[in-house]
Design goal:
alpha/beta, about 475 residues, single chain, Rossmann fold
Length: about 475
């Protein structure tokens, strides 16, 4: 337990150019599981998410739909707020929008600080640019002149005068930082990727666009003809959300050299989060992030990335409507690899649901609580605290799948214990011994309920209530699907 400590975790901010998809759900649910675990471990937690609303992609989609960009962003921001509720994300989550007044001022102040410190300059340039990634692309990054992540979006040529960030000035500083913080990027193989990227040398990158070409953005301080490049604007949300620069006391509570921000992101955000953003923080004289946790992609049929640009997404809404929120949370947290790419198919989902929720956890709860209601006068003494180093260690390493596997191992052990001890038979010949067996099982089941809180919170809360009321479920918690 860690009484009195602070913990700050944030997701990336998804673009508001289409509906939330399963990749978004994965990141939201994983960050939520960590936030809930930290609360369980005694931490004071600040959990941040929101929407990234500026940039070329959003502007073009709004124009295509004949909508004002802000109204377009409002519509999709509400969609993301709705999906957070559907996924049972912690109610105290902070939701920031990059169109919020405070964020706009923070982004401009961040620009001013970096400029004052000598890390911003202006020049003419010509680059190949992927609108889907909102990133410059070198020839070596392209496959058949297309971005491999957004192969259906044509590469564009940008030729204009913009402001640049002196990324090249941070190569040695970043490498030294990586060496001093060996668990900065999780997992290790992603850390090796970014170290190799930085070691090859860094190029300065553009951080503004001409307002005449792309007016939807934060105006550059002191230059009304330019707006901030979307990444430079959006990344600042991680510190504007916790009060920077106006509320330094709040900022220092959540982000300091000892306990910095923990960021979840997909592997296509590795460069932006673990190199670009870290250099920007250094340029502003602010502490670096504590950890960057990199998700793999959720893939569809044939191992192809599930993404809105490829039009192969599975809607979280549809799964939740048929199976329930906790069923989707379970699958994302246990059946999807913590760090590697993993497939999501309806067939795979249904198989896991029936085996591990309907036949597994749901059946165990029904068996034990039926015995408890029939044979116990009241529930045994239970506690919210438990001693399990393995469970805590898995979560501390951000390996949520391993933590979930550990809980289901406990579920399997308890099921096996019922089969071996047969309390339903013992109670008939030795009432005291039978009651003791059932009471011990209920206590073990309550411990499982506590451990389930970060993973499937609705089920966790319902199970606790059943135990405290000493009642069996009125209906199965997870109905089998044929």
């Amino acid at each position: 337990m860690s009484e009195g400590k602070n913990f700050y975790i944030t997701t990336t901010l998804p673009y508001v150019n289409s509906n939330p998809h399963m990749g978004h759900a994965l990141e939201f649910v994983r960050a939520d599981a960590i936030a809930r675990y930290k609360k369980l471990a005694g931490y004071d937690v600040f959990f941040n998410t929101g929407t990234d609303e500026h940039g070329q992609k959003v502007y073009r989609e709004a124009i295509k739909d004949n909508k004002d960009p802000k109204k377009y962003a409002d519509f999709y921001a509400n969609k993301f707020k709705e999906v957070l509720k559907l996924l049972d994300i912690s109610k105290d989550i902070n939701f920031i929008r990059t169109t919020d007044t405070h964020h706009l001022k923070s982004a401009q102040e961040f620009w001013k600080v970096c400029n004052k410190n000598g890390y911003i300059y202006k020049k003419n340039y010509k680059i190949k640019y992927c609108v889907g990634c909102e990133l410059e692309k070198s020839d070596s990054e392209l496959v058949d002149d297309c971005c491999p992540i957004h192969p259906n979006i044509p590469i564009e040529i940008l030729d204009e005068e913009n402001y640049f960030f002196k990324f090249s000035a941070f190569q040695e500083k970043l490498l030294n930082f990586y060496e001093q913080n060996p668990d900065f990027v999780i997992p290790d193989f992603r850390f090796n990727e970014i170290k190799a990227f930085v070691d090859r040398g860094l190029n300065d990158f553009s951080i503004s666009r001409l307002k005449t070409k792309m007016p939807w953005g934060v105006e550059v301080p002191g230059d009304s003809e330019q707006v901030m490049y979307v990444w430079f604007d959006a990344l600042v949300n991680y510190i504007s959300a916790i009060g920077w620069p106006d509320d330094i006391k709040k900022f220092n509570k959540w982000h300091n050299k000892e306990n910095g921000m923990v960021q979840y992101c997909g592997k296509d955000n590795l460069r932006q989060q673990s190199a670009m953003w870290q250099a920007m923080l250094m340029a502003a004289g602010l502490p670096n992030s504590k950890h960057i946790i990199i998700d793999g992609f959720i893939t569809g049929e044939g191992g192809v990335k599930m993404s809105k640009s490829l039009n192969n997404v599975v809607s979280p809404d549809e799964i939740i409507k048929e199976y329930g929120t906790d069923a989707l949370r379970y699958f994302l947290l246990r059946e999807i690899s913590s760090f590697e790419d993993s497939p999501f198919t309806i067939e795979r989902f249904k198989e896991a649901y029936n085996a591990n929720l309907a036949n597994g956890l749901g059946n165990l709860i029904s068996r034990i609580m039926t015995l408890a209601e029939k044979h116990l006068a009241k529930h045994p003494k239970v506690s919210e605290k438990f001693d399990s180093k393995e469970y805590f260690n898995f979560f501390d390493k951000f390996d949520i799948k391993q933590a979930s596997d550990y809980v289901w191992h406990k579920i399997s052990e308890l099921d096996k214990y019922i089969q071996e001890t047969e309390p339903f038979k013992v109670i008939k010949t030795d009432k005291q011994k039978g009651e003791k067996l059932i009471s011990d099982m209920v206590a073990s089941l309550y411990e499982i309920a506590v451990m389930l809180n970060p993973i499937i919170p609705e089920t966790s809360a319902h199970l606790k209530d059943l135990i405290k009321e000493n009642k069996k479920p009125e209906k199965p918690l997870f109905m089998r699907k044929d």
